[in-house]
Each structure stands twice: as C-alpha cells, then as structure tokens.
Design a protein that fits this description.
This protein is an alpha+beta fold. The protein has 2 helices and 9 strands; from the N terminus they run E-E-E-E-E-H-E-E-E-E-H. It has helices at about 85-90, 160-170; strands at about 5-10, 20-25, 40, 50-55, 75-80, 105, 125, 135-140, 150-155. The strands form 2 sheets. The chain has a 6-stranded antiparallel beta barrel. A two-stranded antiparallel ribbon has the order 1-2.
Length: about 180
C-alpha cells in the first residue's frame, strides 16, 4: 500500500505549528482486520480525560545510537489538558509558547510519559464510555520529550472536520 497524494492544510506553515494536519490518499483500499480498524472523530472528550498516543518515534529525547526510532509501535497514556493550564505550565518553564484553539495539549505534570521526536503525525486517541475509539489529536509539536510541565501539543482534529470533509468530497473518497 502506497501513499499517492498528500494534501496539507492550506494554512499550514512549516515554521509554525498551527494547522498541522494533512490527508493521505492511498493507492488501494484498506483491509480492516483485528489490528487495523476504522476510528471515529470526536470532540466530546473533557479536560482531565486520559488518551493514548501512538508512534514509532524515539523513546527518549537523548540522541544516542541505542535510542533510534523503534521498529515496535509504542503507546503512552497521557492526560488531556485545558489549553489555559497547558499555557501556564509552558510559561512556568520560561517558554512563550502559544496554544491556539485548534490545538490541544496532553501529557503529565511530572513528565516521564509523552510522544517524542519522529512521532509527528501519529494519533492521539480517546475512548468513550462505550469503548468507541476516536482520534482527537495528531502529534504536532512540543519541547523535548516527556519533560515536566511541557506536555505534547497536538492538532485538535475536531477543528478541522469541515476541511477534511471538503477534501474527501473533492476526491470522492470515504471519510
């Protein structure tokens, strides 16, 4: 299976983390299995809920030969944070990071668990009370990996549903 088209959001700029989302078109249909399942999108999660981020990126921010990207899919359980709380945590560390309404933060105050380099584009998933899995975020940016008071910053997928649907409609694909 190959990616045949990448459509980035028209307002995305590489030097800024805003609108950090893209749609990938594949050369063939996805075959669902026990390991590959469709996911929904949701905005019903709440601050303080737990979510899971997944990726094949680094397992720590140390740049050593023993810490190259992993060949085993990793996952981490992180708390969804209110944007004001996230902003205050970043500012408490001397960072002037802005958290836009199209972004969300997830992590832990004490650090230790987070997405890391090369996880970008990976899913932040939330499970509702009925065990339905939804993608609520896309790994976007942050400072370091799993540092205290510096949670990961994700693209808030629910803010881009209209754009996703319009792009899908243009190509007659299924969302």
């Amino acid at each position: 299976m190959l990616v045949t088209l990448i459509t980035t959001h028209p307002e995305y700029k590489c030097n800024k983390a805003r609108n950090d989302i893209a749609i990938l078109e594949l050369d063939s249909d996805v075959t669902w299995s026990d390991l590959v399942q469709p996911a929904c999108f949701s905005s019903k999660f709440a601050d303080g809920d737990w979510a899971v981020v997944a990726g094949w990126g680094r397992t720590s921010e140390n740049n050593t030969d023993s810490d190259k990207k992993t060949s085993i899919l990793q996952k981490a359980k992180v708390a969804i944070l209110n944007n004001d709380v996230c902003r205050s945590w970043y500012h408490s560390q001397g960072k002037k990071t802005k958290i836009d309404h199209t972004q969300l933060c997830a992590g832990r105050k004490e650090g230790g668990v987070d997405a890391c380099w090369a996880d970008s584009g990976g899913p932040l998933m939330w499970e509702d009370d009925n065990s339905n899995l939804s993608i609520i975020g896309v790994v976007s940016t942050g400072i370091g990996c799993a540092r205290p008071f510096l949670p990961g910053i994700y693209t808030r997928v629910s803010e881009f549903l209209s754009w996703i649907q319009s792009e899908v409609d243009k190509t007659n694909l299924v969302a």
